[in-house]
Design a protein that fits this description.
The longest helix is centred in the C-terminal third of the chain and has 20 residues. Helices cover 23% and strands 19% of the residues. The two termini are 37 Å apart. It has 749 residues and is an alpha/beta fold. A hairpin with a 2-residue loop joins strand 12 and strand 13. The protein is globular, with a radius of gyration of 35 Å. The strands form seven sheets. It has an eight-stranded mixed sheet.
Length: 749
Amino acid sequence: MNYPRRQYRPGAGDTSRPAPHGKTPAPAAGQRNHFSASPTDRITPYPPRSSRPAPVRGGVPAANRQPPRPAFGNPYSSPTRPGASNKGPTGTWNRRPASTPWPAARTSSAGRPGATPFLTTRPGITKGTGEKKASKHGSRQGFGRPRKKTAFDRPLPDEFNDLNMAEGETETGEEKNSAGSNQERPRKIPPLAPGDIRIIPLGGVEEIGKNMTAIEMDGDILIVDEGLLFPGEDAPGVDYIIPDTTYLEERKHLIRGVIVTHGHLDHIGGVPYIQPKLGNPPIYTSLLTAVMIKKRQEEFPHLPKLNLQVVDKKDVLRLGHFRVRFFETTHTIPDSLGTIIETPYGNIIVTGDFKLDHQDGVVVNEEREMFEKLGQEKNLLLMAESTNVERPGFSFSEKEVQKNVREIVEKAKGRVIIGSFSSLFERIFYIILACEEIGKKVAIEGRSMKTNVDIAQELGILKVKKGTIISTDTIDDFPDDRIVILATGAQGDDFAALMRMSQKEHRAVKIKRGDTVLLSSSVIPGNEKSVQKLKDNLSRLGAKIIHYGIAAVHSSGHSYQGELLWVEKMLKPKFFVPMHGHHFHLRIHADVAMEAGILEKNIVVPDNGSLIEITDNGEKIHLRKETVPANVIMVDGLGTNNVKEVVIRDRQMLAEDGMFVLIAIIDMKSGKVRKSPDIISRGFIYLKESQDLLRHVRLVTKKTIEEATTNMHPINLDYLKNAVREELGKYLFQKTHKRPIILPVLIEV
């Protein structure tokens, strides 16, 4: 980027050359520098009013204009522009002839330390060339000396604007790449040729979660799932992560519908955030999933009503050029569906999340017959999940888990408290029905679990006698050996029901000796410490703990490697794209597909945003070099704020080094600091025990401000803030080896 030369007083020494942007120019012999460290060396960078001619709109008067000079001799040319220099033919530095009046100038818009006036007119250049946009805090200046700022021109305090703008961030909040320009856009995506099929995984192929895939053909787009992902510790303050739908937003007039395979949040969680951006296309899904989507949508009353269409395995849909059918799958939630999308070249099969219903590796007849029948059709492409592909063999049967859980509940001599995922519908329903048969009462704790049980009862999926399900307020009315409590929080969530019980914070349930706590779920990676804390708390209260590590009380709802291999051999697809997993999982699944007989050239391992195309009348599949936008879209609260990465970096800095706020009052006439600066610190140091450090911080602040304001008229607050931030940052790092976010607040009086 080219920066204009700094203006110097006419008659300055021949050795005065402009300094690079952001650096203090070295004073020439006999010349004082406004930005020098010593107060005695500072002068205003503008000539006295009496020595300047009256400003002329348009720049230099016609009588004084000079013809353009070559770049090497042009006193107005910027040394940073290619081919330009301030040296004349003899190698000496040119200076402005005394007869040439000063050009119109205005102050820097950004208030950078060391910033210089910008030239508005150059010889041989039309009016306006070289102008720079005004700061967002002030209006454009006139000619000559900048007008005095009014109260309306003064910038807001640091905490309200861009005081601590992160490195690489522009004033509009956009980030820049290393070259300084805004982030490079993806390559232009070519239009899809007639008859070709395009598959675009927008999420779920570089992570387990936020599943979403688009299928496009002949001007029609079909979407499968709209899920979300829960962020890790590297995204503080972020509630959810959803897919980037930029490609679909630009083509929302082509979207014919959204198919949702089942009701888990990694498949339906993005609906409230994504549907409005896509024009609210119709959603086709099973009854239970539709009710769960509708229930979740009640948390967003400001959004338009969803167009929900209930389907089952017998329905056939015509969506544009696509003909869509469904088949039942086994999962931890009822009403899970696989999808068959018919094309002129064969079926595209999307399994969704599934496992096989089997007994010791032998698939039950109903599922075997279904897959055999489907395998007799012409199957063009299989898109199957990869979550548990690295686990060999077949998954543990859910029926065995149910049998073991029933045995534990039946033999327990005290209360049984079962912690599990609220999304494990099949297991929750079985436990409630088993307790009814045994003659025990069930109390339910946890908002999500209560909601799911209520939905199942309303739909008739769960039918129990009156009195089987009781309130936790009445559990003391029954003997301990007749009480079973279903609770959320098996992952050690701080505010979940089971964790509150373990910390003696639950209003109705108090853990006591003789209770049996059954953790009927696996430990999600990253939750090991919180789960261990939960176990320790429960043990201190005298409870007996049973978990999946010592008893078969949990099974996954996702297929193991042996089940995936069995399905791929049964369906015999021509092409294969692994889905729903990290890249490592997808690579393993590709090897499994080759073992099933699929050619390596017919397998594509995608990333989020990949463009997979089936061409030549369904004979070839390839991965294009172009990609669609697949940025991380982070959601804060109930809005799709799309939290920028720079915000996340600031939050991480706050978490690691804290913040340091300094409030100083400056006399605008004298430039002196009135009173002692006030200091606020959060997460950095304990103020009461750091008085010596704070005393030196105040001295550094006062010295920095008063030295910088000597002969500075008018006082540039932006420059002062940057100077204070820089000096304090150096001092604090030298003393503490930490880099807190420093927010100087300068109040002018």
